[in-house]
């Protein structure tokens, strides 16, 4: 898989790798599909994880392991959305805000997970070049994907928090294309957040018997 880690081109004095470019373009497409509530968001996310796993496997074990977890969560999301298909009037999944208990559980899981993963990265330095922010992004991504799988509007808030750290971290570590893509992620997140927010209000509104859909 050395070809995946070869240089694709140079942009603003930054060396763009094929793996970085292809994997993140698939990730960007997956986010756009998630905004549209298309079930194909999950196969695309799985494929993005698979490409990055292949690129990292053998020389960046920690990064490869993270992509393996992302692929597992993508399979979970596919399963959840298959079960929830047709809940909304347009035939897609319905979306909603999480309960306060769900929010508390996700925040607690994100905090505990970040600490645990960061300590693991610090204990095994070969797993990560920057343990704390790397752990934050990894755990935040998993929490965001879980919230997306459950059709929670908070999915977008989680992605926004990941972006705030992901953009500078990727530029600092030489993954310029990831940094640029994360900037676009930020714009998609804001649009997607607004769309899901409005849809959550429509999906929660009861339909009167005999009234047109």
From TrEMBL:
Tree of life domain: Bacteria
InterPro entries referenced in this protein's UniProt entry, alphabetically: NMN_transpt_PnuC
UniProt subcellular location: Cell membrane
Keyword Protease: no
Primary localization: membrane
This protein's UniProt keywords: Cell membrane, Membrane, Transmembrane, Transmembrane helix, Transport
Residues passing through the membrane, by range: 15-34, 46-79, 104-124, 136-162, 174-193
Pfam families from the UniProt entry: NMN_transporter
Membrane topology, as annotated: Multi-pass membrane protein
Record-stated family: Belongs to the nicotinamide ribonucleoside (NR) uptake permease (TC 4.B.1) family.
Protein name: Nicotinamide riboside transporter PnuC
Lineage, top ranks: Bacteria, Bacillati, Actinomycetota, Actinomycetes, Kitasatosporales
């Amino acid at each position: 898989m050395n070809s995946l880690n070869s240089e694709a081109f140079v942009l603003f004095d930054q060396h763009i790798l094929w793996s970085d470019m292809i994997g993140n373009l698939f990730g960007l497409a997956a986010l756009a599909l998630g905004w549209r509530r298309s079930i194909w968001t999950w196969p695309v996310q799985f494929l993005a994880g698979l490409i990055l796993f292949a690129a990292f496997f053998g020389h960046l074990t920690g990064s490869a392991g993270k992509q393996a977890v992302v692929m597992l969560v993508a399979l979970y999301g596919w399963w959840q959305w298959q079960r929830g298909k047709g809940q909304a009037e347009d035939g897609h999944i319905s979306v909603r805000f999480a309960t306060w208990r769900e929010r508390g559980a996700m925040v607690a899981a994100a905090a505990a997970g970040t600490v645990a993963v960061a300590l693991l990265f610090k204990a095994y330095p070969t797993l990560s070049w920057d343990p704390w922010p790397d752990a934050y992004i990894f755990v935040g991504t998993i929490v965001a994907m879980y919230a997306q799988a459950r059709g929670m509007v908070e999915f977008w808030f989680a992605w926004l928090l990941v972006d705030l750290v992901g953009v500078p971290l990727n530029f600092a570590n030489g993954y310029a294309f990831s940094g640029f893509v994360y900037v676009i992620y930020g714009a998609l997140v804001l649009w997607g957040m607004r769309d899901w927010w409005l849809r959550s209000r429509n999906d929660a509104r009861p339909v009167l018997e005999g009234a047109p859909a």
